[in-house]
UniProtKB/TrEMBL annotation:
Family the entry assigns: Belongs to the DNA polymerase type-Y family.
Self-association state and partner proteins as the record states: Monomer.
Catalyzed reactions per annotation: DNA(n) + a 2'-deoxyribonucleoside 5'-triphosphate = DNA(n+1) + diphosphate
Required cofactor names: Mg(2+)
Source organism (scientific name): Chitinophaga lutea
Catalytic residues of the enzyme: 106
Protein name as annotated: DNA polymerase IV
The organism's taxonomic lineage, starting at the top: Bacteria, Pseudomonadati, Bacteroidota, Chitinophagia, Chitinophagales
Encoding gene, per UniProt annotation: dinB
Length: 413
């Protein structure tokens, strides 16, 4: 059939946990939690053994340890996770004609047309075995005619398995599953459907599309398509150099270090917010300086994938001080985040408290409503604030600084 696609989905099983078990073989087969230590920490990942106790990611560590007091806790190793992710990316890049790195541990491969030359499942299975052999990490594989069905197939193949759904069998494969097995169907949507008696994908697929639209808006149309095994989303080619950046040319050249620091903070917060809005993480930071004589210098560093301002700011300032020549006036500075991958805050959960994560979510919610400059660190705002981490509010802002500080004391730390 014209237009038939072949899409493979690779997913590194319990990625953080698997890396920890590779570092310490004695952890294998035990209830293992990766995340922030102590009562205020958060679970970033947990082993299958821990999940049997009802533990899941983003759960407060204190609660997880109440559910499973004998669980082993590891603080996480962002650098090691990023290194393994880069290693797997390199192997897929060498072999696949077109691939998308959808997160630190997930990949889509568009293999359309390859079956004319050799068995697609055989080729994909051999690539999976190569990754397992070289990294010693488990990886599951799903193969289907579109991204959504291949992802569901991968989830069904876990742990460390593979599953192929023949073209034309998508609806049959999905039909008996619970509605929340469909990607992007969260607890709230699933609850709405169940209240209306919709328990399985088969039932969902039989509901008229107009009725689903009336229930759930545009999301109802998308849901109907998914329930019927339809997904036309393309595999977006992964470009390592895709980036988010900003720079500022000053009206007059300067050597004022406090001002330069303040600009670095402002720019880093601006594009850090953009990262989180796009659900992306960065693995590389570049700082650029142009002096008054137009000499331009740049320096970059690879970092563990993150979108957290406090981590990004530390690295940006470190790069700036390595570059900056105090004898020269500065004309321009710039900051760029590259090596972007899709992903959320999860990779930082092992270094942050539940309060810090809630703080970021609250700040980004406010910025989304009123603009990214609505709330900034003190060192990036008006001179009346001492450099630091105090919030700065616009004069007519409906949220008062003192109230915000009382509610989120972590902002000033």
């Amino acid at each position: 059939m014209d237009g038939q696609r072949t899409i493979a989905h690779f997913d590194m099983d319990c990625f953080f946990v698997s890396v920890e078990c590779l570092k310490d073989r004695s952890l294998k087969g035990k209830p293992l939690l990766v995340g922030g230590r102590g009562d205020r920490g958060v679970v970033a990942a947990c082993s299958y053994e821990a999940r049997t106790f009802g533990i899941h990611s983003a759960m407060p560590m204190k609660m997880a340890l109440r559910l499973c007091p004998h669980a082993i806790v590891r603080g996480g190793d962002a650098e090691e996770y990023s290194r393994f992710s880069a290693e797997v990316t390199a192997m897929i890049s060498e072999e696949a004609p077109l691939y998308e790195k959808s997160s630190i541990d997930e990949f889509y491969l568009d293999l359309t047309g390859m079956d004319k030359y050799f068995g697609t499942m055989k080729w994909t299975s051999e690539l999976r075995q190569k990754i397992i052999r070289k990294t010693q990490l488990p990886i599951s594989l799903g193969l289907a005619s579109n991204k959504m069905v291949s992802k569901v197939a991968t989830n069904e193949a876990k742990p460390n398995g593979q599953l192929s759904i023949p073209f034309g069998d998508e609806k049959t494969f999905l039909a008996p599953m619970a509605v929340d097995k469909i990607p992007m169907v969260g607890k709230e949507t699933a609850a709405q459907l169940r209240r209306r008696g919709v328990e399985t994908v088969k039932t969902l697929s039989e509901i008229p599309i107009g009725l689903l639209e009336a229930w759930l808006g545009k999301n109802g149309i998308s849901l109907w398509k998914k329930a019927n095994g339809i997904d036309e989303t393309p595999v977006i080619p992964y470009h390592e150099q895709k980036s988010i950046s900003t720079e500022n040319t000053f009206s007059s050249d300067t050597i004022d270090l406090q001002f330069l620091h303040s600009e670095l903070v402002r720019m880093t917060e601006k594009i850090g917010f953009e990262l989180r809005q796009q659900d992306r993480l960065t693995g590389c930071i570049t700082v650029k300086i142009r002096y008054s004589d137009f000499e331009t210098v740049t320096k970059q560093m690879s970092i563990p994938y993150t979108s957290s301002d406090h981590v990004l700011l530390e690295k940006v300032k470190e790069l700036f001080h390595k570059l900056y020549d105090r004898r020269l006036l500065v004309r321009l500075i710039g900051v760029r985040f590259s090596h972007l991958v899709s992903g959320n805050y999860q990779i930082s959960l092992f270094e942050d408290t539940h309060e810090m994560i809630s703080l970021y979510q609250a700040i980004d919610s406010i910025k989304s409503q009123f603009g990214w400059e609505f709330i900034m660190r003190g060192s990036s705002s008006a001179p009346r604030f001492e450099p630091g981490l105090q919030p700065f509010m616009k004069e007519k802002a409906p949220v008062k600084e003192a109230v915000f500080k009382r509610r989120y004391p972590g902002w000033g730390r």
